[in-house]
Amino acid sequence: MLPKAFHPHPSLLKARFVTLYLLFPLFSSVVFVLGMMLAKQAIDLGVTPWTGTFFANVWLALFWAGVAIVRGEVLPVEAWGDAALIGLLFVLGQLFTYLAFQFGDVSVATPVFGVKVLMVAALTSLLAGINVPANVWAAGAMACVGIILIQWSSGPAHANARTSRRGLTIILALGAAFCLSLFDVFLQEWVGSWNSYAFLPVMFGAAGILSLVFLPKVDGPKRLRELKATRWMLAGTLLMATQAMSMCYALAEFGDAPRINIVYALRGLWGVVLAWLLARTLGTNEATLSRVVMLRRLAGALLLTAAVFTAIAA
Asked: How many domains in the chain?
């Protein structure tokens, strides 16, 4: 028989299991940045953001359709309306995300997505009829300062066009964060009554069908070859679909949207750091920016990350 020291207390085992699901959003936070850096390569070559949205949603729809076929389980028809509404929010969030990366840099848009955790906390409180805690409002103020630092440029007066594009990027990123915050809250709330393996195929099936609206603006295989963007778009959207699967599974299976989004918000840091490190390799705009500008963006990302942790402080 093993000595007593080799038998962990049951509460410790439970704590390890409970926090294990946070590895899903941690994985997603890294894969999101890598996926968007590759997708942005394609967008910079002339591919439309509608193409990225369409492909990413099609991959998700096909994967979850396969899950439904293998399991042979179908969500009851009365829940299809809820699943379709959540699917619509996901499509809108994805579209705003790709549009944000069309107009701006990865190191600008990605940290702004960090405010999503504040939106999730606020929406969860408001929809439940609970007052928003003071620490959430304090975190919101920190997030605003972080966004200002990311927006601030040290360029000359003729850089107004770039400043305007950064402003548009931030607005689109905030729009994506809001749509996906509603998505998280509703997914956590509505999937609880159903098996997540039955709910998610219908939800992503609806997202895939809704994405067919984008077909007139989607670049076909021939156009992608002409732009030499096929590998970038396919790899980027597959990674984006993978990180979305990981996040949605964690939300549907474990709930706890605030904590999951706290870990997921670390993509703001990865967005600045990886964009800076890989700028010359990928030839992104970050390679042309001064060290001062990138340090300001990093400071803004750190403030947004600090805001995330402040939002869940006791």
From this structure: 1
Furthest-apart CA atoms within the chain: distance in Å: 76
CA 224, CA 202: separation in Å to the nearest integer? 30
Cβ neighbours around 224 below 10 Å, total: 22
CA pair distance 176, 68, nearest whole angstrom: 28
List phi, psi (to 5°) of 76.
-55, 145
- Express each pLDDT in 193-248 by its tens digit: 777 778 888 899 999 999 999 999 999 999 999 999 999 999 999 998 898 889 88
Name the region of 72 (left: φ>0; alpha: ψ -120 to 50; beta: rest).
left
Is 2 inside any structural domain? no
| 80-113 pLDDT tens trace | 888 899 999 999 998 998 888 777 766 667 777 7
Q: Could you tell me the end-to-end alpha-carbon distance of the chain, in angstroms, rounded to an integer?
A: 42
Six-digit token pair at 301?
């990302």
- Rounded CA separation 307/141 (Å): 8
Beta carbons of 82 and 272 less than 8 angstroms apart: no
pLDDT on residue 289: 64
pLDDT (0 to 100) of residue 219: 92
Rg (C-alpha) for the chain, rounded Å, is: 20
- Domain span including residue 181: 30-311
Alpha-carbon distance of 184 to 181, in angstroms, equals: 5
Give a yes or no: residue 20 inside a domain. Answer: no
In a domain, 235, yes or no: yes
In a domain? residue 9: no
Contacts of 87 (CB under 8 A, 6+ apart): 203, 204, 205, 206, 207, 210
Name the one residue in this structure whose structure tokens are 């600045």: 272
Looking up tokens 């509505």, which residue turns up? 190
Hunting for tokens 């394609």 — which residue is that?
42
Other Cβ atoms closer than 10 A to 102: 21
